[in-house]
Amino acid sequence: MDINAGATAWVLISAGLVLFMTPGLAFFYAGMVRSKNVLGMLMQNVFAMGLISILWVFVGFSLAFGGTNRYIGNFDFAFLRGVVGDVTKAGDFPGYGGALVVPGLAFMAFQMMFAVITPALISGATADRLKFGSYAVFIGLWSVLVYSPVAHWVFSPTGWLFRRGALDF
Questions:
Q1: pTM of the model
Q2: Which of the following CATH numbers is that of domain 5-163: 1.10.3430.10, 3.40.50.720, 1.10.260.40, 2.40.128.110?
């Protein structure tokens, strides 16, 4: 199916807006912690943006949107294999049946922004309680072992919650 320029523009604008939410959240949480922890809070959120983006490109997107399993994806799209293709054609992912009208990279970037902001939300709960190294390991593991499978359940048309009619956004 050919791409829809309007839908693609909207998806990319939306991805950019969600991306801007992450530093906004970092500043919000930095304002809530003691002054000695402000820099640490900002560093956690900025680091999460980089680490989660890399993990999403390497395996996260594939685990969330690859394959036809009801509970977790596979590694068909690892390192964006099969996603980075003809940008004039819509992304073709299992279960969408040609209904996706945006390029695969635009869809991947949009979903990546939600994967990025989620650990930023978690950082507010760990403010003043977790060392940076522990936080880095936690969000890396959490992103791959928790977020990606749950995203598959809800956002992938082959996921078990999606099939039961769950709508998240």
A1: 0.90
A2: 1.10.3430.10
